[in-house]
Backbone:
């Protein structure tokens, strides 16, 4: 039971960190001027994609897909959320 809780906590930290980091990175990108090297460092990242996967069930069709954009601030967000959860959990 503890192993399942641990995997869930790792997934929670990962997704919360990526979301918080992405939002902060985009806000920083809006503040910094166009063409700035620091702006490119914060905003540019790697997009990880899965899909689209189509499942045709004759009556209806389901399409599944997932993409995740990870940048430098997203990685820092993961670290910050992990430290916060470690302090308060």
Residues:
């Amino acid at each position: 039971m503890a192993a399942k809780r641990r995997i869930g906590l790792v997934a929670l930290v990962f997704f919360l960190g990526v979301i918080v980091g992405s939002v902060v990175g985009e806000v920083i990108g809006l503040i910094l001027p166009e063409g700035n090297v620091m702006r490119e460092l914060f905003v540019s990242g790697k997009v990880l994609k899965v899909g689209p996967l189509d499942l045709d069930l004759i009556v209806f069709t389901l399409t599944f897909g997932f993409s995740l954009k990870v940048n430098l601030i997203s990685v820092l967000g993961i670290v910050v959320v992990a430290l916060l959860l470690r302090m308060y959990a």
Q: What stands out?
A: The chain has one domain: 2-88. Residues 2-88 form one domain.
